[in-house]
Amino acid sequence: MNRLIGLGVGPGDPELVTVKAANLLAKADVVFVPVADSGETGRAEQTVLHYAEAWRVERVVFALHDREHTARRERAWDAAAAQVADWFAAHPGGTAAFATIGDPCVYSTFTYLAATVRELVGDLAVELVPGVTAMQDLAARSGTPLVEGRESLALFPMTAGAERFRTALESFDAVVAYKFGRMLPETLAVLRETGRLDEAVYGAGLGLATEDIRAARDLDPGEPGPYLSTLIVPPKRTGRGHGLR
Fold first, then answer.
1. In this structure, which of 8, 150, 163, 237 has its CB flanked by the most CB atoms within 10 Å?
2. Model-level pTM?
3. Burial class for 223, CB neighbours closer than 10 Å (0-12, 13-18, 19+)
4. Digit-coded pLDDT (tens) for 137-189
């Protein structure tokens, strides 16, 4: 049977790839990696090349720079799925891995790819291998406990808008925001208005030479950050065991 495996390869640090993912990257017949149509080497591809020979790595182009659901994005999904389906047609019974940054179940392009490949390849087993997420990596690198005891946690994409972000801050003890680089001014404004700015932690380029981790209050609201930025807004705590009360 054909196997398509969605592999989470973590936020960018090759040392954060799980043993299971590393073993599969070493054994898969082919490893597909998502890249933008602008051609630069993606973060997932950089990580994969630590575990798989370049000749087994095949690029799949997605409209990664499109922040809205566009016709161009739909065409890219269809073309990517056709590319993978063609590979299975030429390698019946083969094992193909698709490497995705972070985790394949968290804001991943693999979700769209797998759904369409299923329609094109009748005999197909789809498997998932979890990966370390950016919020986990940033929490560890900055020494910020995400949640304790009974505290709740929300993972929020800033592409959903500043007002929904405000609602999340009001409804959950801890909030992690993704994809907010272009909305940095609005994000900082909401944090300031809700009294949550001083505790918030910002991170970008985690595990890379360009890594940037700092207090959110030190960010310049006039300078947008990278799209793949992470923000942790921890709970307001008043001592040990606060989350158990």
1. 8
2. 0.89
3. exposed
4. 999 999 999 999 999 999 999 989 999 999 999 999 999 999 888 889 999 99
